[in-house]
Amino acid sequence: MAAxxxxxxxxxxSERSSSLPKSAAVRYVSALxxxxxxxxxxxxxxxxxxxxxxxxxxxxxxxxxxxxxxxDLTCPxxxxxxxxxxxxxxxxxxxxxxxxxxxxKLASGDNFPVSGFTSYKDPDMFAxxxxxxxxxxxxxxxxxxxxxxxxxxxxxxxxxxxxxxxxPENGRKVxxxxxxxxxxxxxxxxxxxxxxxxxxxxxxxxxKGIMHLxxxxxxTYDLDAExxxxxxxxxxxxxxxxxxxxxxxxxxxxxxxxxxxxPWLMLYLRADAAEGFSGGYHYNGRGMxxxxxxxxxxxxxxxxDVKLGGGPNSQFYLIDIGSCWKNDGQPCNGDVLTDVTxxxxxxxxPATTSWCRADNLVSCPPYHTSLxxxxxxxxxxxxxxxxxxxxxxxxxxxxHLEKPYDICDPYSNPQAQELIQILPHRxxxxxxxxxxxxxxxxxxSRTWDLDxxxxxxxxxxxxxxxxxxxxxxxxxxxxxxxxxxxxxxxTAEWTVSxxxxxxxxxxxxxx
Length: 511
Ligand SMILES: *[C@@H]1O[C@H](CO)[C@@H](O)[C@H](O)[C@H]1NC(C)=O
Ligand SMILES: *[C@@H]1O[C@H](CO)[C@@H](O)[C@H](O)[C@H]1NC(C)=O
Ligand SMILES: *[C@@H]1O[C@H](CO)[C@@H](O)[C@H](O)[C@H]1NC(C)=O
Ligand SMILES: *[C@@H]1O[C@H](CO)[C@@H](O)[C@H](O)[C@H]1NC(C)=O
Ligand SMILES: *[C@@H]1O[C@H](CO)[C@@H](O)[C@H](O)[C@H]1NC(C)=O
What we know:
single chain; mainly beta; 5 helices; 7% helix; signal
């Protein structure tokens, strides 16, 4: 497949610096298997996570919460040449599915149809094994060198039963949860996995007779719901994909509705590391990114059309970037006691306020780095851009925190986490991000060209004093919403298309 690439002028961070050239021409190439979402074949998977990104218990007769829809569209060469045009007698095109119902229904303890995968009884470990199995079925055959797998739809339920021991505390297994923090939970079983339904990708013709694939997933966390009669007061999610016939991009249409029993839900479309850890996930997973983007040199492009916001607590992320490194700057190695998930998110719902304020420094990062590289301490009230931040919280296993500090929720990840949540602001719009609240929100659909690399290199992340700065390599780039505990039913709806992650082309190393 032809790599989608762009010739971009890279303006170095400090234009004023005289020792550096004003600009240098750098060729950017897509880091994704499905760059710009232009592939006509479908490579899509779904994962459902409980509060700490595990499974816990599988939903009745649903299997392990990992599913995939991987379908190739093949049309006869001549029809292909004529843009897959149909003759009046109907389609000559065919769909080949690489994942079938039996694969998608695999549940913990089941044997895999091929060797090389272990049929764990533990639902958490089985889900990871199933993800790798589905990946092996979906891996495109033209790419031995830099394999890639699928877009990942992530669905997460924010219920947490403090009487259970399903989630560790900052990565540490605990026999009993003792905390004053409050979490939604309606009672026993509140951390269940969803019911999921699937329309396998199938052929449709556009008005010119050109064939495309279309498909989708929907489902609910309310196990007593009857979705065929509509979701009603129950929780609901749906993600469907079809082609924009003008641009050739996939359009992912998303919808997420909370319910009384499931007031806190998340639905993201993720470009994860093709192999290895991804943001918030401590197993060797499967994803879309063949090359990993590293700050400060990478960009993210996407078209986002928010149709319904999801209420005041909907933290809509344009975008969320996730990674993992240790407090001493070393990369993660799967040791959940010292690995730390790092997230940064821009929240574009204009109802989101700044918790970081001059009178609430506890929710601010210790300092802000200005575009020119100046460090502005959070107590410099006349200069610190408080309204550029929603909140900052520190990893629970950090040993040298500057007071005052807040520790991030110690239970909602497999390990400790650090979060820096930013808001639309002039500080960030220089990198292509929204300038003011409301930009990119409902009825303001836009195609964004975000210099995520430059922005993320300016963010504060905790590190132990005297240690070498971590390489900021990002293993997940996500877009979607997190509807926080809402006391009424809320619905968010949005579409994502043209998604790409662009990284500088690497010079081939000759041996
Ligand atoms: C589904 O696919 C698996 C693996 O390719 C294969 O072993 C199995 O026979 C298939 N099942 C059906 C019902 O087609
Ligand atoms: C947890 O245990 C307490 C005390 O036994 C009980 O009151 C509460 O309902 C339990 N919570 C859940 C979610 O089961
Ligand atoms: C499957 O497609 C039908 C017809 O378009 C639609 O009504 C239904 O909601 C879809 N279901 C899923 C799981 O996407
Ligand atoms: C979800 O998908 C199922 C299966 O395609 C369909 O019967 C149902 O109507 C859909 N539910 C909603 C609420 O769209
Ligand atoms: C601001 O914080 C820095 C770093 O903690 C400290 O050195 C300085 O004294 C503080 N300034 C004021 C005015 O509190």
